[in-house]
Each structure stands twice: as structure tokens, then as C-alpha cells.
Amino acid sequence: MSQNPPDLRPDLAPRATLPSDARPGQPKIGMVSLGCPKALVDSERILTRLRAEGYAISPDYAGAEAVIVNTCGFLDSAKAESLDAIGEALRENGRVIVTGCLGAEPDYITGAHPKVLAVTGPHQYEQVLDAVHAAVPPAPDPFVDLLPAAGVSLTPRHFSYLKISEGCNHKCKFCIIPDMRGRLASRPHKAVMREAEKLVEAGVRELLVISQDTSAYGTDWKDRAGAGAHIEALARDLGSLGAWIRLHYVYPYPHVANLIPLMADGLVLPYLDVPFQHAHPDTLRRMARPAHAERTLDRIAEWRAICPEIAIRSTFIVGYPGETEAEFETLLDWLDEAQLDRVGAFQYENVAGARSNALPDHVPDALKAERYERFMEKAQAISAAKLAAKVGTRLEVIVDAVDAEGATCRSKADAPEIDGNLFIDAGFEDLALGNILTVEVDEASEYDLWGRPVAR
């Protein structure tokens, strides 16, 4: 059984697992999905539409007649990883279609890999399909080609990402997502609920709500209906479906407090994924983010007063241009006071097109690495103390995997891949993927828990 911490880069999603069923003579397409969960949802939508047109999905290069590489452009390191993946697909297969965030820079891709068949940008599903049609003509057989009611899923069958909007209206200097994915465009409430209902009907036990800015959902509509009304209504309706509802990428607006009673009432998981990024007001101003860290601490206290069991996770940037030792120490002090449950960080990187590149006083790489280690040491100590306090308590968990050694589970405080696990190494023989059960915690480490099932 694997143990945390995983790679805490915020631009990574769980590894996609491709289905491999195909009838004789059926055209087959491969998919390499990189980047965040939002990109994983894009990959699922592309594959669902290809399946509807009669294509099979190949889990390897050799069996595919063409390969789609869904790329990430969040950081320069992610861009390099995307170029490497494209190069690997070209070597192993030779017929490659590129899409995703890095596709917004077609010259960058073709400059490195001129033999790709086509390049399309993020969520350009029709253009991807056109490129596939040109490379591998469809050959559907409506009598035998069946599409699952919930579409093609690249995650285990018991949880699924639910994307509620595209784009972002923020202008953070370190981020180019709005340039690649555009301004906020919220999906209609009814469309989101239809998709969620289908997923739950197909056996999904946990819905992970994602977007670039979940708490801004619906603010782009003419009917604004009051601050936060649309995301509150959506969360309430999703909570009526009987699945675990987990909210990701919740920007800390004041109206987020309206979601917390839904968590206290059990409609939504008591879990908030909030991108705080930093704590010092000067650093936040240079990032072009709201510079009121003290209000953030007040909001955290308010959330915990309403729902004491709430788990708060966040990611932070260390070594942002101009970050002084005093600013970094303020971040460490803030972390001590905030006592967040799950914390990740990454060292600042320049990204082509980001306004932060032009800021003065860039932090040397060695100093960024040293601050990162200090930050993670602090975060790890907080996590260890919080998890140690859970020993002897009972938690409800969902089963992610079962093998000969035991069962790997997650509590309500843990999202797939990015947070911790709870391991069961005795009494797990009758457990199956997606089971939800109560366990008693009997051991803790810095990131993970161990426990045993409570007799039912």
C-alpha cells in the first residue's frame, strides 16, 4: 500500500486508467491526460464523444491508431513534462494530436515537435474530434457500440470529478490560466445536476466539485441573485443526491460562510480546498490577490465555529519574486495560527506570459528550496499533531483500493491523491471498492492514519 505525501504540485490529477474493450476492426485511439482534474474532465468528455462515434480506447501506444495528448501549461516544468509526453507518444506511436492548455501556444509545440498531426487549445472538443476524424476515420456499429450512461470515466468507478465552470476572472500575476481558458463561464445549474444525477445513478459515491473558482459559480450570469446564492443552491441540490460532495478550489470570499452550515448539516463534506497562496499582505499585493490575511484568519475561525469538524486544505507559493525573509516568516507564523489540516506548496517558477516574470528581486533557487523545506517541515508537524489527535476516534471512510495487504481508504477530510489515506490491515477481506464504513483509528503518522473496521 502506498503512503503519502504524494507529489503536491497543484497542477496534477490522479493518473488516468483507460478502459481497453474493443470489437474486431474497431478504430482505436489512445489518450495521455496530463494536468489538473479539470483537464482530466476534458479528457473524459473527449473520450466519451469518441466512444459515441464508435471509437475504442487503447490503454497503450501499440494498440492505438492515433494518440491524443492532453497537455498542461500551468508551470514551465509542466510545459516541459507535456513536451516530453508528446515526444514519447511520437516515438512510440507516431500519430499524435495535441490538445489542452499548452495547445494555446501551438508554435511552442510545433517548434519542438513539428510532426504532430494537429494542435488544439483547451476545451476545444470539436476541433479535437475533427483532427481524430482526419487521422482515423470513424467506423461505428450502432448494434454493438454501447456508451455507458455516465460516459467514459478516467477515475475509479466510485468517485468522479464534476466540473461546474470554465475560466477565471482573477488576474493573479503568477497565473496564465485566464489567458488560456478565458473568463469565467458557469455551466447551467440544470446541466450540472443532470450530470451529477447520472453519475450517482451509475454508482459514483463521491462527487468532487471542481472549477478555477468554485465559489464564483454563477456570478457571470445576469441573474446574480445575491453573493454566493448560486453556489449555495448548487451545493444544496448536490447534497440531496446522497453522495459525498467535496468542494475544491473555493476562493475565500465572505459568502463562503453560507456553505459551512451545509457541511454542519451533512449535505456537503466538511472539507474546503482554499488557494490562500501566501499570508503576507505585501506578497499578496504583488501577486494581485486580496491582501487581508488577518481577515482570512477570522474567516477560518468563523468556519470552524459553525462546523468544528471542517478540514481545510490549501496550497502556497514560496519564493515569490520580492519575498523577503520577514515576509516568509510571516507566512510560517500564519500557518502556526491557521493550523490548516492539509497543506501543499510549490516553489515559484516563471511561466511564459505571466506578469510576475517582470517583477524585481527574484528569489535565488537555493533560497527558494531552503524556504520550501522549512515550510513543509512546519506543515508536516501541524499535520502530525492533528492526525495524532484522531487516534481513538471513529471516522467514516470510503474504500479506494483493496489488495492482499489490506484496504486503502480516505476519510471525509481527504481528497484522492492530494491528501492522506487511512489504511486497514486487518478485517478488510470483505471490503470492496467504494464501500463506506466506520473505522476506529489506532495509529497515525505525519500524513496517514491506520484503523480497524467497527463491527456493524
Looking at the structure, what is the overall shape?
Answer: globular
Q: Specify the biggest β-sheet.
A: 5 strands, parallel
Low-confidence stretches: none
Oligomer: single chain
Return the CATH class of the largest domain.
Alpha Beta
* SSE pattern, N- to C-terminal: EHEEHEHEHEEHEHEHEHEHHEHEHEEEEE
Number of strand elements: 18
Sheet with the most strands: spatial strand order:
2-1-3-4-5
Number of structural units classed as domains: 3
- Going by CATH, the architecture of the largest domain would be Alpha-Beta Horseshoe
Strand content: 15-25%
Helix content, binned percent: 25-40%
Task: Give me the Rg, rounded.
Answer: 22 Å
Number of helices: 12
CATH homology superfamily name of the largest domain: tm_1862 like domain
Question: Structural class of the secondary elements?
Answer: alpha/beta
Distance between the termini: 25 Å
The CATH topology annotation of the largest domain reads as pyruvate-formate lyase- activating enzyme
Q: Round the mean pLDDT to the nearest integer and report it.
A: 89
Overview of this structure, please?
One of its GO terms (cellular component) is ribosome. It is found in: Cytoplasm. Belongs to the methylthiotransferase family. RimO subfamily. It comes from Jannaschia ovalis. It holds the Pfam family UPF0004. With 456 residues, the protein is of the alpha/beta class. It has three domains: 108 residues, Rossmann fold, CATH 3.40.50; 169 residues, Alpha-Beta Horseshoe (pyruvate-formate lyase- activating enzyme); 60 residues, OB fold (Dihydrolipoamide Acetyltransferase, E2P), CATH 2.40.50.140. The chain is 32% helix and 19% strand. The protein has twelve helices and 18 strands. The strands form five sheets. It has a five-stranded parallel sheet, with helices on both faces. A five-stranded mixed β-barrel has the order 14-15-16-18-17. α6 runs parallel beside α7 and α11 runs parallel beside α12. The longest helix has 24 residues. It is globular, with a radius of gyration of 22 Å. The mean pLDDT is 89.
